[in-house]
From TrEMBL:
GO molecular function: oxidoreductase activity
Residues spanning the signal sequence: none
Keywords: NADP, Oxidoreductase
PANTHER family the UniProt entry points to: RETINOL DEHYDROGENASE, WW DOMAIN-CONTAINING OXIDOREDUCTASE
Family listed: Belongs to the short-chain dehydrogenases/reductases (SDR) family.
InterPro entries named in the record: NAD(P)-bd_dom_sf (IPR036291), SDR_fam (IPR002347)
Official protein name in the record: Putative Uncharacterized oxidoreductase
Length: 213
């Protein structure tokens, strides 16, 4: 805000631990907007104590995955429609959220921000795991942590950088790597069949519970 004091920012409130609020937020967005050029599903929690949400899912699973899936599913038709109306790799006017689309295709990236000094550390500290806390304090002393601005770079690369290419869509990026260079992924993360099964399960479950149609 210091650099762009006149930027127009509207807030859309939702609690990812409450799917009704996620669906309501998506519907509200669709009621007031006619285009969507980019979406960053960034919110998340880590190492929180085991607890169920009011929707009856484990809190971290719902916050970090299920709710983002539901929110995205509701917004996808508008994103596709926006993408169809633009040339490939388009983005909107200067200073506005950027698009990664064209010909109806939506580009996507999975990102790892690196080790970033944010509030996420608090939940790790509160988790009471001496090993994790010990490793993190050594990393901190060694200067491995970056600040929150740097932590946003990978997301911004995906949503706002002209250098991103269509062939990079689907990659997994990390901030400390040279941009455009995918990060190492575990076998499970690269397992397309597993990803398909997860998507099928999520769609079926969310339909059954009435969160998507
Ligand atoms: N920091 C790291 O080193 C690191 C490393 C790897 C991955 N990540 C990932 O980076 C992402 C951002 O984390 P961060 O480091 O910026 O952590 P953070 O400072 O704790 O920020 C988390 C954000 O998620 C939002 N959030 C949490 N629970 C929510 C809920 N139920 N409903 C709506 N919003 C909720 C918070 O909103 P409020 O501010 O309103 O609470 C906050 O804006 C997470 O997905 C995390 O897994 C971070």
């Amino acid at each position: 805000m210091k650099m762009h004091p006149f930027a127009k920012i509207d807030l859309l409130e939702m609690d990812l631990m409450d799917l009704a609020s996620v669906v309501a937020a998506a519907k509200h967005f669709l009621a007031i907007e006619t285009a969507l050029h980019g979406l960053v599903n960034n919110a998340g929690i880590m190492a929180t104590p085991f607890k169920m949400t009011k929707d009856n899912y484990e809190t971290q699973w719902q916050t970090n995955y299920l709710s983002h899936w539901v929110f995205t599913e509701h917004l996808l038709p508008l994103m596709r429609q926006t993408a169809k109306s633009l040339p490939p790799g388009s983005r909107y006017g200067p200073g506005s959220p950027s698009a990664r689309d064209g010909k109806g295709e939506i580009w996507l990236l999975s990102v790892h921000p690196g080790l970033v000094e944010t509030n996420l550390g608090e939940s790790i500290a509160e988790s009471g795991s001496m090993i994790v806390n010990g490793v993190f304090s050594v990393f901190r002393k060694l200067g491995f942590f970056s600040n929150a601005d740097e932590g946003s770079w990978t997301s911004l690369y995906g949503v706002a950088n002209w250098d991103m290419k269509a062939e990079q869509s689907g990659d997994y990026f990390e901030v400390h790597r040279r941009f455009g260079e995918p990060r190492w992924q575990s076998a499970a993360a690269k397992d397309a069949k597993l990803a398909e099964r997860l998507d099928e399960w999520t769609r079926e479950e969310m339909k059954k519970q009435g969160w998507v149609s």
